Amino acid sequence: MGRLRRRGEFHVNERDPEVARAERAADVADVTHASGIHLGVGLVGEGVAFLRRERSLWPLALVPALFATLLVGLAVSLFWVRIEMIHEAWVSMLPVLEAVRWWSWIWVGPGRAILWLIGWIGVAVGFALVLVVALLTANLLSAPFLDQLSIRVERIEQADNPQESLEAGNFISETLRSFAAELQRLLFMMSVWASLGLIGFIIPGAHFVTAPMLIAVTILLLPLDYAGFALDRRGIPYRDRRRWLRENMSTMTGFGGVAFLACLVPGLNLLVMPGFVTAGTLLVLRNPPRAADASIRRTTAG
């Protein structure tokens, strides 16, 4: 009996190195993930501090703040006027509980209260997405100014003649390019939102899944939007941007999570867009995406 026990102990000890290696690998993965999130959050703070320190960038940051103020104010006003209708629309997608016997109120009453609360949670999710859409629309209208802001941030960061300005012809072409690129990003995000929203509307109960997915997708796509100006200048195709997103998932989650939460804070959401574009530019400089194909195309074209 003692021999069998010793064999069992020897067998466990023999597997200990494998278990230890697996535990160390898991610990390293956890640390890497946590450090990536911390890096993404820190980049947002660094971008805001960078913009506050460089006063020469303030005129370029003022126009996006004005657009954000107008569009967020309009979005909040329209949402507030229609809030009861929006709540009813959410409730209409939920099951209806009826009390067929007097004792069924024991569960029907609390069930109705829970469904009513879920309806207002849906309203809150809708309000958050409306604010994000308003800010992204302001981002579109401010695209030429934000693009110039991103250029200046990159030049200052790399100490490369930050006072250099574009000629009139180049400014017009760059303005049209930045408008087109930002519109493409906005349409892509809205197509994703529309697809998830349609699934939640058609399939009963699917909105319990699609609503959190909407938030998660938005958090992951926001860094691509704010870093988009720097990525556009490098000719990075969307395929490489998705790969870059996957390779830096934890950093993108930290960056996008802070950006999403900031969009929900009244007052703060009107001022943070230039800071996020600054942070997105720093994100590209600190974690450059691999885009060999784009570099080859640009070199060949030159």
Describe the structure.
The radius of gyration is 25 Å and the shape is elongated. The chain contains twelve helices and no strands. The chain has one domain. It has 302 residues and is an all-alpha fold. Helix 2 packs antiparallel against helix 4, helix 7 packs across helix 10 and helix 7 crosses helix 11. The termini are far apart.
Order of helices and strands: HHHHHHHHHHHH
Q: What kind of oligomer do you see?
A: single chain
Give the number of DSSP strands. Answer: 0
Largest sheet: none
Number of helices: 12
Q: How large a portion of the residues is in β-strands, by DSSP E? A: under 5%
Molecular shape? elongated
Poorly predicted regions: 1-15, 19-32, 161-169, 292-302
How do you describe this structure in short?
The chain has 302 residues and is mostly helical. It has one domain.
Key phrases:
302 residues; mainly alpha; 12 helices; 82% helix; disordered N terminus; disordered C terminus
Give the topology.
Blueprint: H1 2-53, H2 58-81, H3 83-92, H4 105-141, H5 143-157, H6 168-202, H7 207-226, H8 228-233, H9 238-247, H10 249-263, H11 272-286, H12 292-301
